[in-house]
Specification:
By secondary structure, the chain is an alpha+beta fold. It folds into two domains: 5-132, 3-Layer(aba) Sandwich (Aminopeptidase); 177-335, 3-Layer(aba) Sandwich (Aminopeptidase), CATH 3.40.630. Helices cover 26% and strands 36% of the residues. It is built from nine helices and 19 strands. The protein has helices at 19-26, 30-33, 45-52, 107-121, 137-145, 187-198, 256-270, 285-293, 305-312, and strands spanning 5-7, 10-14, 59-65, 68-77, 80-81, 84-85, 90-97, 127-130, 149-160, 163-173, 177-181, 204-207, 210-213, 218-224, 229-238, 241-249, 275-281, 297-302, 329-335. The protein has an eight-stranded mixed beta sheet, with helices on both faces. Strands 11-14-15-16-17-19-18 form a seven-stranded mixed beta sheet, with helices on both faces. α1 (19-26) packs across α3. The longest helix has 15 residues, at 107-121. The protein is elongated. The protein starts with a strand and ends in a 7-residue tail after the last strand.
Length: 342
């Protein structure tokens, strides 16, 4: 069988009949299991076939080095992780080197680099995630060498040898902008960006839950490589709920809003906050579509909320998208699953 990826002495091909014998050998080696699946998980040939020879959308491959089978890798499209919505065209991967004599030779780095290139160039992926357990320094170091960076923690994410363990959420973002926490250095630029987006000052936001000043809110910004602001999300925490107070981006369909929302949802997961709330206006069909695709549900319509906000802030427009008069607020919620395990 021809490899789907060739990189020097490294070849990666689809699994085929007979490869279950390699997998069985590796997945009964305690040294391998201590990093992959756990030493208390006993594999048989039947279990290998059941877990690795499936008819689904995952791509499962054997890894060969100098034509010798040495390991396994799988990669797949991923829409969310622990309830956190990921950008479009996101992928993840899992892998191990089963022949321990090939450890500590830089092959793992070459393997991950090869798959990253394949996802980017062949699958047109734009975002790749890994979730190593926090104690797995070998894996974390390998991924960092390939350009992955940790953006947060997934509490109680993976079961290993009798315990639920926290994992790092590590990402390789192929976008042409960076996401950073909103800080005092961004405030003037963020205020100008929001004002230009809305045609009125957005340093003060008036919605049904209150009046908020930009400098009092948490948030994230999207910045181009030249420092130009491409998007802003702001939020506040209150009584076990995160409320998103604004989300704006300079360009549509570039994944900016998805990445900003992902970071807010990650904060919720890290802090084990189970409810995220967002308010939009009755004219904002694009926002309603976006939030519902991300798993948010409409729970309430506050009639006349924008009319009342306009009394405090008269510059709020009367007419919005598609010539629709702006009167009301729609409240959407997303319920996250608790990260507690017995």
């Amino acid at each position: 069988m021809e490899p789907i990826i060739k990189s020097g002495e490294l070849n990666i091909r689809y699994l085929k009949d007979g490869d279950e014998n390699y997998l069985l050998k590796w997945l009964t080696d305690p040294s391998v299991l201590s990093y992959y699946e756990g030493k208390d998980r006993r594999y048989t040939k039947e279990k290998v076939i059941e877990d690795f020879f499936l008819e689904d959308d995952e791509i499962r491959c054997l890894v060969l080095y100098k034509n010798n089978p040495i390991g396994y890798i799988q990669f797949y499209s991923l829409r969310e992780i622990d309830g956190i919505s990921l950008p479009n065209n996101s992928y993840s991967m899992d892998q191990f080197i089963g022949e321990t004599s090939y450890w500590n030779q830089g092959i793992g780095k070459k393997l991950v680099q090869s798959i990253v290139h394949y996802i980017k160039m062949t699958l047109k992926g734009s975002f790749i995630v890994m979730d190593p357990q926090r104690w797995n320094k070998r894996a974390i170091c390998c991924y960092e060498k390939v350009g992955f960076r940790s953006i947060g923690i997934l509490p109680n994410h993976e079961y290993h040898e009798g315990n639920w363990n926290d994992c790092l959420l590590m990402v390789k973002d192929l976008a042409t902008y960076d996401i950073e926490p909103l800080n005092s250095l961004h405030l003037k630029q963020a205020e100008d960006f929001l004002t230009s987006s809305w045609g009125s000052s957005r340093s003060e936001m008036v919605i049904s839950t209150g009046t908020y000043n930009l400098h009092e809110l948490e948030g994230f910004v999207a910045l181009s490589t030249t420092g130009e602001m491409k998007g802003v999300v702001t939020f506040k925490r209150n009584d076990g709920v995160i409320e998103i107070t604004s989300l704006d981006r300079a360009l549509e369909n570039q994944g900016i809003g998805s990445r900003l929302m992902m970071m807010v949802e990650l904060i919720a997961v890290e802090q084990q906050i189970l409810l995220i709330k967002v308010i939009t206006t009755n004219d904002n069909m694009h926002a309603l579509s976006f939030y519902q695709r991300k798993g948010y549900r409409i729970k309430e319509v506050i009639h006349g909320a924008v009319d009342r906000a306009r009394q405090v802030k008269p510059e709020i427009p009367l007419i919005g998208e598609r010539g629709i008069p702006i009167y009301d607020e729609l409240v959407l919620y997303k319920q996250l699953s608790p990260c507690f395990n017995d």
